[in-house]
Amino acid sequence: MATSQRTDWPSILRTAVLAGITGGLAIELYIYVTVILRQNGDVLGYWQWIASVAVGQAALTSQAFAWLGIALHFIVSIGWAAGYAYIAGTRAFMSRRWAISGIGFGFVVYVFMQFMLIGAGKFVPPGDTQLVNQLVAHCLFFGVPVAFVTAKIGQST
To answer: Model-level pTM?
Structure first.
């Protein structure tokens, strides 16, 4: 007789929200410090660009679209964290080796997000320095925080 494993969706959702917000804030802070400040960039313009991936060039015409960019960024972050939390819930090694798992997860997120940009017509091939910076952002400042929060919350539930 086969046993069925029940998925704890409330726990996965709670973990996803906390891990997604943590990872989203960490990567945003990293991008702000390493890209926007260093290039005297406009943080609102950056978030407008994020919104433009979803709604097109119109998002670049008004700073009001920055809020949409912020919202989209955190919705996507929470979505990725939900996927990670679900998979980590079925594979104990991901919580035991959360740093390594987080780096690998961040790399997967980076690759898939590049495909999203290609599909949206927003992909710009990065130079060597940009590529390293983007990989560090996604692997260390998104993947690792998501994995850490998921591992710690998973232990407490």
So the answer is: 0.90
Residue the block writes with tokens 């945003």: 28
- 138 has a pLDDT exceeding 70: yes
User: How would you class 136 by CB atoms within 10 Å of its CB: exposed for 0-12, middle for 13-18, buried for 19 or more?
Assistant: middle
In the chain, the percentage of residues whose pLDDT exceeds 70 is 94
Average pLDDT of the residues in 9-38: 95
SS3 80: helix
| Angle, alpha carbons 147-153-154 (nearest 5°) | 85
pLDDT digits (tens, 9 = 90+) for 67-79: 999 999 999 999 9
Find tokens 């925080």 and name the residue: 145
Non-local CB neighbours of 57 within 8 Å, separated by 6+ positions: none
Amino acid type, 106: G
d(CA 69, CA 46): 8
Structure tokens at 21: 């917000």
Domain map (residue ranges) of the chain: 10-156
